């Protein structure tokens, strides 16, 4: 029951193949994030789905129908941009009402729907304000209300939070997730921020260089990176080869022989620090650097054999210091083979 299907999508600019044979599907009433570094082709794919000026090969199906040849206004797709794109000369009410007016809805219907939507995004007291008198977060909430009031089949959001400060970003991402679940909207949310993607998605699609690297739930993607790019992109620490694991003293992983040439990942939070745990390998070494991340402390650890590992622990008592000799403990079952 795929709701949006992208089949063999190819897009080129000036002879440069930017998207080369992309395939994915997303389900109704879910929030999927499209995650990838800058330049990986996220906006290009979003614009193709929305129908904004692109030549493409392949098929785009929405709710079972091919839409790749339909004009923008026939697709029933909403889009939200980083830059808000509000009408500066219209009030909050008029901005949100704009699309309904264009569709010749009755005045009473417009009033009802617009007021309800403005209330949902928490802007009742700003209903007659102009965009210039709103904060960035409030402007983006107007843009979200304006898109949602049209009840699109699919809502595309292109890095909608990138221009906001860190606190507003976290608040608004949680609110977007809340609207999505409360109203039952299918959303495709673009971001280059993996924390943001992990926090709000049912499903994550990771892109690099126009190629889909992995698709899955946030937990699955974190636990089982599909390839080298994914291992380094998500989490990005302790990507080791089998030879390094053998040097650390591991012989097998989950009763399987270690392949010296394969890649493995150890997530920093899975080490136990100076506290022996059962069935774990003891790794001696010393602390090389300490960064306090707020709720957590992240340390580089140099093993006796000269390997550099990163471990994290909760920021409770910080009774350790750089240069301190220490021991890490790790179970082989906490090591993940890449791929
Ligand atoms: P992202 O949104 O992931 O940052 P984009 O989709 O904007 O990536 O861009 C992907 C690639 O396509 C980049 O290399 C970019 O330079 C190129 N590109 C995007 N739009 C155009 C265009 N209109 N003309 C030429 N090249 C483009
Ligand atoms: Mg982009």
From TrEMBL:
InterPro entries: AAA+_ATPase, ABC_SmlMolc_Importer, ABC_transporter-like_ATP-bd, ABC_transporter-like_CS, P-loop_NTPase
Top-level taxonomic group: Bacteria
Record-linked SMART domains: AAA
This protein's UniProt keywords: ATP-binding, Nucleotide-binding, Transport
Domain (ABC transporter): residue spans on this chain: 4-234
Molecular function GO labels: ATP binding
Name this protein carries in UniProt: ABC transporter ATP-binding protein
Organism of provenance: Lentilactobacillus raoultii
């Amino acid at each position: 029951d795929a709701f949006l299907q992208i089949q063999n999508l190819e897009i080129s600019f000036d002879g440069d193949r930017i998207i080369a044979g992309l395939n994915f599907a997303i389900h109704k009433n879910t929030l999927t994030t499209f995650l990838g570094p800058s330049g990986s082709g996220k906006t290009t794919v979003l614009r193709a789905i929305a129908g904004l000026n692109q030549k493409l090969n392949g098929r785009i199906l929405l709710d079972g129908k091919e839409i790749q040849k339909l004009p923008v206004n026939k697709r029933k797709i909403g889009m939200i941009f980083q830059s808000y794109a509000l009408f500066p000369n219209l009030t909050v009410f008029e901005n949100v009402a704009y699309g309904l007016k264009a569709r010749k809805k009755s005045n009473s219907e417009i009033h009802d729907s617009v007021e309800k939507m403005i209330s949902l995004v928490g802007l009742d007291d700003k209903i007659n304000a102009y965009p210039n008198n709103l904060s960035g977060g409030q402007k983006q909430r107007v843009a979200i209300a304006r898109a949602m009031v049209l009840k699109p089949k699919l809502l595309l959001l292109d890095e909608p939070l990138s221009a906001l400060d860190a606190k507003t970003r976290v608040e608004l991402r949680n609110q977007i997730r809340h609207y999505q679940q409360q109203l039952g909207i299918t959303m495709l949310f673009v971001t280059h921020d993996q924390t943001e993607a992990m926090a709000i998605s049912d499903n994550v699609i990771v892109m690099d260089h126009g190629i889909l690297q992995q698709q899955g739930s946030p937990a699955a993607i974190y636990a089982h990176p599909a390839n080298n790019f994914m291992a380094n992109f998500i989490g990005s620490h302790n990507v080791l080869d089998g030879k390094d694991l053998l040097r650390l003293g591991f012989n097998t992983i989950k009763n399987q022989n270690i392949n010296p040439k394969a890649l493995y990942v150890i997530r920093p939070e899975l080490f136990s620090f100076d506290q022996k745990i059962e069935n774990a390998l003891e790794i001696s070494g010393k602390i090389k650097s300490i960064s306090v991340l707020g709720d957590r402390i992240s340390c580089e650890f140099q093993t006796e054999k000269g390997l550099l590992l990163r471990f994290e622990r909760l920021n409770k008592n910080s009774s350790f210091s750089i240069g301190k000799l220490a021991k890490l403990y790790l179970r082989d079952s906490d090591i993940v083979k890449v791929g």
